[in-house]
Amino acid sequence: MITKIGIKKSLKELVAYEEVKKGENELIALARLTTVVESTGLKPRDPGMIMFLDDKDVHDCRKEVMMPIDRVVEGLKTKIIPEMRAGFLVFQRNNEPLEKYYEELLKYIKDQGLEPKVDSICTSIEAIFQPDTYSYTTMDFIDEDKQDIYEIEIIIPIED
Questions:
Q1: Nearest to 50 by CA among 75, 70, 20
Q2: Per residue in 67-99, pLDDT tens?
Q3: Model pTM?
Q4: 38 HSE (CA, 13 A, CB side)
């Protein structure tokens, strides 16, 4: 179920990040990153994010997992996600495939007379807002039978 759709300007944000290894599950990579962040004494914040550096459907798409943090800590890979104009769609997961939501967002962007940004830092970002009952660090994964209890935001950079 789609709960929000629109165009926004994101804020600059400091994140800890790791590259996702080829063939690795993104949630496992996000759990590992969260554990590393917590081991530095920082408190990870929602949302955990998966950044797709290439077209998501391309074989061997390069990906990074990211977690917003409050400050730079030695030994932790960090970067600043720049401010960007983007189309976004927030949904509560149900039985629909993720691709359906990408199609909806791309249609919305085009209906606004806009285009995805080709020379952006990424092709898309999936931000996962975890319910309080789950934790990446304890490896509690999303219960496939209760998918409607968490939200995902898809973000696609657009031309200014």
A1: 20
A2: 999 999 998 999 999 999 999 999 986 678 889
A3: 0.85
A4: 11
